[in-house]
Specification:
Number of helices: 3
Structural class: alpha+beta
Distance between the termini: 34 Å
Largest sheet: 4 strands, antiparallel
Number of strands: 11
Strand order of the largest sheet: 3-7-5-6
Strand content: 25-35%
Amino acid sequence: MHETPNRILTPEPIETKQFHNANDAWEHVNKIYTSSISFLRSKFQAVLSHQSGHQRYRAFYPEIRITTTTYDQIDSRLSFGHVPGPGRYSITVTRPDLFKNYLTQQMALLIENHKVAIEIAVSETAIPIHFAMIGATRWERYHVGQHWCWPIKCENGHGSYLRFATTRVANGGPLRGSAQ
């Protein structure tokens, strides 16, 4: 764990790297994301089980960056895989596992079209705790006092949101007949 000057605990820093291979770049994006999510989930569990004091925790999304210095002539029939001109471009990424094919194709085209490396870093955009819980299974339950608590993704016609379902605990397990 790493402590920032304002006493917020964060995961151990992961170094910024440059890549000329899109698959290697995606692996580093996924490493950063997985590390951040694991950190938030473990700290959430520690807080719920009273193993942690009044401490603040924060983890961050991975970021993909590209810097170009020329106006390269690029076949722009595709709407992605190139940037319009010189500059530094970046984007944060969530759930790289869901977007692996898209991200690797995009990064491969950027590398090929602009003849530059892709830079992968930890961004300055914090991951909200409820986003860290999306993808957790129902079996990843968190004990909260007299209750078990687990994340459930819900749909409401206006998009998705996360809520926590709870089940009362009796003698170390769920009460008979309670909803799970």
